[in-house]
Amino acid sequence: MDTVDKATRSKIMSRIRSKGNRSTEWKMRMALVSSGIKGWKMHPKGLIGKPDFIFEKHKIAIFVDGCFWHGCPRCGHLPKTNEKYWHKKILGNAERDAANRKKLRKSGWLVVRIWEHDLLIQGKSIRFVKHALAKQDVPATI
To answer: pTM for the whole thing?
Structure first.
C-alpha cells in the first residue's frame, strides 16, 4: 500500500522530468565536456525516440537510461505497491526503446544506450562514446 494519497502521489510523479534529469543527463553532459569530446547536441528535435545526445554528423544517437524507468536488468526494481501497473509501465518503456532503436538503425544511426549505473563508474560512459566514435571512424575529440 502506498504511504501517500493518490493526489499527492500524482503530484510527486508529475515532477519527474524526461529531459534535464540531473542523475543522468547532467552527469553525461559533464563527462562529455570534461573529456573534451565535441560535436554533440542535446535533445535534437524530430528524431525518432528523442535521444538525449547525438553526433548528427556521424549519425550516433545516445540514450542515457534511468535504471528504474527503463527496467535495468542489473539494478532496476518494481515497487511493492501497484506492481501490476509498474510492470506494465516499465515493460512498455523497454518495448518502446527497442522499437525506436530498430527504427533508428534502419535509418542509418548507430544507437548507444548508457545505463544510469554506468555513469557512476568513472570513465565508463565516455568509453562507450569513444567506442561508438571509433566504429564510425571518428576521432574522440572532434
So the answer is: 0.80
Q: Please list, in sequence order, all residues whose beta carbon lies within 8 angstroms of the beta carbon of residue 62, skipping any fewer than 6 positions away.
A: 28, 40, 51, 52, 53, 54, 55, 112, 113, 114, 129, 132
Give a yes or no: residue 5 inside a domain. Answer: no
**CATH number of the domain residue 25 falls in:** 3.40.960.10
Closest CA to 40 of 102, 135, 126: 126
Residue 83 resides in a domain = yes
Number of domains in the chain: 1
Q: How far is CA 73 from CA 36, 67, 79, 87, 138, in A?
A: 31, 8, 15, 13, 31
Mean residue pLDDT across the chain: 86
- pLDDT < 70 positions in the chain: 1-2, 13-22, 137-142
> Running DSSP on this structure, what letter comes out for residue 112?
E
Q: Domain of 96?
A: 19-135
Which pLDDT score, from 0 to 100, does residue 108 have?
94
